[in-house]
Amino acid sequence: MSSASIYRTPEGEAEIHAIYDRQLARLNLPYESRMVNTRFGATHVLVLGPQAAPPVVILQGGNTTSPLTLGWLKPLIGQFRVYAPDTIGHPGKSATVRLSPRDNSYGQWLTDVLDALGLEQPPLLGGSYGAGILLRAAVVAPERISKAVLFIPSGLVSIPVGTMLQMLWWLGLYRLRPSPARLKHLLSPMFRDELIDDEVLEITEAVFRLVRIEPEMPRNVRREELQNFKAPALVIAAERDGLFPAGAVVRRSREVFPNLVAAEMISGATHYLSARHHPYLNERCMRFLKETS
Prior knowledge:
The chain has 293 residues and is α/β, with parallel strands linked by helices. It has one domain (10-159, 213-291): Alpha/Beta hydrolase fold, catalytic domain (Rossmann fold, 3-Layer(aba) Sandwich), CATH 3.40.50.1820. 41% of the residues lie in helices and 15% in strands. Helix 5 (129-140) links the parallel strand 5 (124-127) and strand 6 (148-151). The longest helix is centred in the first third of the chain and has 18 residues, at 10-27. It is globular.
């Protein structure tokens, strides 16, 4: 665990929080804001949805915010009591210390969050970096997860070397001389030829400018690490994902999960799912959460 703040300046942290608040307001949903303690530091949790509805925990993508991730899954919030922790060490309102993605720290952190919220065995949903955190929790506390949905997931396969080199090249150029065109080149493996939303550009530009970004994804899980993880699992890949190729994700899912219900891909989708793919993601998650036992 690094003791240095992820934010370059206090003013930068305040600017990220202001963007976070604007994103949250755009959801136009009632919510509670809670702070809970973990062994690694304070964690901010958004709580949304009907109080009497069954719980579900949603884990955000890396180097972005919980409200942005929740925007993809907004229909679920009407059906479930949603708990969305701001990942510690990522943009948001949790402690600003970063945990190592190479060990089980993030799994231990998530277990502490579940304890603090009084959630004994909830379903977990994780997208991208959040899926890698879900897998670390499945390693350290498999009994705490009743169901698991991993979409466009990290933690199963590595980013192709060519893609990584391409992104590092454009990251270097962008840092040397920032411009919207260079930012779009940097993000191209996640979007391909899809238009990039202004909301995404706003938070991404701010993160690259104000945050010491996390360059690593959670390490890939091994089959033997999940031998005690018996919860039903659904994996949803994106056909045109430049970070985690769908075919490799599907194959690896079938190798490592003891109770894999399905490993699927969304036709035509990129890593950053466009709005036209959100209905499928929500319908599939809803069906899995309600029907799988």
